[in-house]
Each structure stands twice: as C-alpha cells, then as structure tokens.
Write a structure and sequence with these properties.
- One of its GO terms (biological process) is L-tryptophan biosynthetic process.
- InterPro entries: Anthranilate_Pribosyl_Tfrase, Glycosyl_Trfase_fam3, Glycosyl_Trfase_fam3_N_dom, Glycosyl_Trfase_fam3_N_dom_sf, Nuc_phospho_transferase.
- This is Anthranilate phosphoribosyltransferase.
- Pfam families: Glycos_trans_3N, Glycos_transf_3.
- The chain is of the alpha/beta class.
- The chain has 2 domains: 65 residues, Transferase, Pyrimidine Nucleoside Phosphorylase, Chain A, domain 3, CATH 1.20.970; 240 residues, Nucleoside phosphorylase/phosphoribosyltransferase catalytic domain (Pyrimidine Nucleoside Phosphorylase, Chain A, domain 2, 3-Layer(aba) Sandwich).
- 43% of the residues lie in helices and 11% in strands.
- α11 links the parallel β4 and β5.
- The longest helix has 14 residues.
- The chain starts with a helix and ends with a helix.
Length: 326
Amino acid sequence: MDYTKIIKEIGRGKHHARSLDQPTALALYRAMLAGEVPDLELGGILIAFRIKAEAEEEMLGFYQAMQERVMPLQAPADMPPPIVIPSYNGARKQANLTPLLAMALSTLGFPVVVHGVSHDPARVTSAEIFRALGIHPPTRREDAQSALIMQRKPLFLPIKLMSPEMDSQLNLRWRMGVRNSAHTLAKLATPFHHHLHWRLASVSHPEYVPRVAAFFTAINASGLLMNGTEGETYANPQRMARIIGLHRGEQELLLDPQQYPLPPLSSQPEGRDALSTARWTEACLRGELALPDAIRLQLACCLKATGQADGIASALDTIDRAFSPG
C-alpha cells in the first residue's frame, strides 16, 4: 500500500482531512494488524485518525479487519443468547461494577463473556476484580470454550488471548501517550461471529448515540446502548441513563430514566480497590446487600431485550427473586 498517499489524505487536520473508503480502510487495518506498516508511517496514521476521528466507512472497514483477527467461540446450546461486555477502562473515581453486572447476568441464566485488558497502571480493571472473585482468565481457546459451556459464571477473556493483534495496537497507547482507533474498535469486538448474541455498548456523550446506533445497524448487530460509567458499560448507580435496544435495524427505548428515579444508594464498596469491590459484589449476589437500582434496571432491560421477560416490571420481579436473601 502507498502509506504516504494515505497519510496525505487523512493527515490534513480535523477540518481538511479526507476519509478513506471502506475497501481501503479494510486493507489498511489488515496491514496494521499484520504488523506490515513501518513504525514511522504507523505513528503518522494513528495520530491522523486521533485528530480527525474515523468516518463511518472507515470504522466499518476497520471493524471487518479486526473481526478477522478475533478468536471465535461457539454459543452454548439450549441457553439464552450470550451477552458480550467490553471492559477496557476500569475504575478511576468510583468502584468498577462491571463484574457485578456480569455475575448477575450469569445468575439469571445468560452465558456472559467479558473481554478487556488485564492491567492498567492507573485504574482498577475488571480482570483484577474477577481474580479476587476466583474467576481466572483462560490461556487457550479450548479452555475458554470449555469454561463458557461448563461453568455458570462469566468468562473473562483477555484481549491478548482474544486478539493478540488488537492487544498490540492497544499497547501503543503507552508508547505514544494517546489512545488510537483500537480503543474504540475493541469495545465493539465479539467472539461470536455467527450466532445471535447481544453486546453491551456505551458512549461518553449523548451525541454519540446515533452514530453508534447506525454502526450497529450497518453490521446487523444486537445490543443495548447507553451512556457508560467512566468508560465502562454498567449503569451508573448515581445517575441513571437512557437505555436503547438495537435489534435487526430497529431501535427501542427500553428505559426512560425519568420514569425510574434512583433512590439514594443503600450501600457501596468501601473503596474502589479490587478486593473491596469483590467482597461487596459477593454480598450483593448473596442477597445480603441490595443491588444498586441502576444495575437492577439494566438487568431488567437485558431480560426484556432478549425476550426473557415481557416487560421491565416482570423482569424486576425475576431479578428480585433471584437475589433475595437465602
């Protein structure tokens, strides 16, 4: 590929750069993931996209190239559709409740795959909390497939195992000082290439919701979309957000926060460290502490969207029975 020509097109700044068409973006990201782009040109390309942002056609091409490098898994038979949860940010200011969400979904009968980074020097990752909960990541695809089928707990899939090439792209952040396209793409990855499944997706600002919804439509994916919490996909226990269901090109408002005002939190982890979060999570799962209402409502939306409940009210009844003491 002529990388000089590509950089000339995309490197003109936010207001003057031109976008690549989907086939060119596909070929470019394939080359990037294969390690075929020289370091100097790769750095220029990453910074150019950091400045201009990826256009829809570029994202579709990049996504296709990424999925070609994602380890496939088979969905368990005779179970509800799997739910895939990305976890690449972790906890910075408040406890990371992604493991609580994943564990609760497993309790409700869903196969759950959480994929993400194993370590972040500045944040508490879901991987660390899962380890404190006794859930350890597999090291081989065969082990991941077996765990998904046999255990009734979430499967945490490190990005280094799910896609070593994407892991390499993500790690360039620490060398370059800024994030790159991989940080957006990784949150859209899925190991279920040919099965009906649901992805949890989040945005940082409401104006990105239409863009992500359009992307899900373009790739014919099903998911729940909402404003996230510090980059994670769990519902903020202090501020409920709208939750939108995306399925077969249709959008449905599953939860309007104005209809479900959140009461004050009855409990929360003592700290945001992995051990405190894990112990508090276990207490919630045993019914000793109440689930945060925002998490209850997010779980209810998952039940409704996947057809496991007729509505939010009946879903909440199911959830309350599952997590009642004893």
